[in-house]
Amino acid sequence: MGGRCADTGVKSKALVAILMLVNAAPLWGSDCADNSVDLRLATGGSARFGVEVVDTPQTRARGLMYREKMTASAGMLFIYEQPQRAVFWMKNTLIPLDMIFADATGVVTHVHANAIPQDETGIDGGEGVLAVLEINAGLAGRLGITPGAVLRHPKLDQRTAAWACSPR
Asked: 91, 120, 115: which is closest to 101 by C-alpha?
């Protein structure tokens, strides 16, 4: 991470804290949006990320390849047609990422922290994965996103979602 200032860690922690504080209260009553994903953490907190949804074979194949940066409050949400084994790699991906794997109900089953840019080693999220949220590396740990957290998005089947969107 060359070129960063010595106080970057402090700034990152402050940004994460602000992200959590701003989003914690409104999430419980707010509705889902196609361009955001909500996470209810096992610790009782919550987080929200603005997301780009990739839900076709073509958009999933490209993912975050060739992008040089992503804001701390942004992410990419991969959605599959049905639960499956999900294995990712970082070929042509320039941003270090955390990958959050969730089942069909939105329950986080696996978190892979700090995926290395350009690495072609498979990152196995396991069986039964329906959604994968990619965020900037280190955020999952700083926010406390762990297996057992619950992801909420309108593309999940609301009849079986562990945290359903409010009816419209």
From this structure: 115
- Hey, what's the torsion of the CAs at 30, 80, 108, 74, to 10 degrees? -60
Instruction: Report the CATH number of the 8-152 domain.
Output: 2.60.120.1140
The structure's pTM equals 0.84
- Residue the block writes with tokens 């047609």: 81
What are the tens digits of pLDDT across the range 58-117? Answer: 999 999 998 999 999 999 999 999 999 999 999 999 999 999 999 999 999 999 999 999
Residue 113's φ and ψ, nearest 5 degrees, are -95, 145
CA distance 87 to 45: 28
In the sheet where 46-54 sits, what is the strand order?
108-115, 97-102, 129-136, 74-84, 46-54, 36-40, 150-152
Domain ranges in the chain are 8-152
Q: Where are the alpha helices (DSSP H) in 55-150?
A: 57-62, 139-143
